[in-house]
Amino acid sequence: MIKIIIVLLLLYILFNLFRALFVMMSAKEHSKPMSHYLGRRVLFSGIVLILIIAALKLGFIHTNPSPLHKATARTQIQISTTTPHQQSANTKQLLERQNAFHS
Questions:
Q1: How many CB atoms lie within 10 A of CB 37?
Q2: Contact indicator for 48, 14 with CB cutoff of 8 Å
Q3: Who's near 69: CB < 8 A, 6+ residues apart?
Q4: pLDDT in tens, 23-75
Q5: Are strands 96-99 and 75-78 parallel, antiparallel or unpaired?
Q6: How far is CA 71 from each of CA 62, 63, 77, 78, 102, rounded to the nearest angstrom?
Q7: How far apart are CA 91 and CA 51, in angstroms?
Q8: Higher pLDDT residue, 35 or 8?
Q9: Integer Cα distance of 98 and 103 in angstroms
């Protein structure tokens, strides 16, 4: 329900923006000034912002979880699964260590 209200308010904001455009393009003296519609747009934008913050704090809507909070650094040790063979001291391979995240 809260999302529908927010979408309707955003559509009303766009409507007022385009009404201000049409008032600006026409030179009628008896119509309301362009600032009337622009002021209405700013007022309803503030209402939408306050409504979204209040809905978040009250738990009506939830944000998407950040992928950064779930990330943990992991270290992998790669062990060779091949059959051992004769190696000299100069050619012996060390175990590879790979860090999942480079800090």
A1: 19
A2: no
A3: none
A4: 888 877 767 888 888 899 999 999 999 999 999 999 998 888 877 766 565 66
A5: antiparallel
A6: 20, 18, 19, 21, 12
A7: 67
A8: 8
A9: 13
Among 5, 3, 32, CA closest to 19: 32
Show the tokens assigned to 78.
Answer: 């790669």
Phi and psi at 83, nearest 5°, equal: -70, 140
Entry field: residues in the chain: 103
User: Could you please report the per-residue DSSP string of 17-79?
Assistant: HHHHHHHHHS--SSSPPHHHHHHHHHHHHHHHHHHHHHHHHHTSS-PPPPHHHH----EEEE-
Whole-structure pTM over 0.85, yes or no? no
Instruction: Write out the H or E segment, with its range, that includes residue 7.
Output: helix 2-25
Q: Which amino acid is at 49?
A: L
| Placement of tokens 């001291």 in the chain | 89
SS3 of residue 1 by DSSP: coil
pLDDT at 23: 85
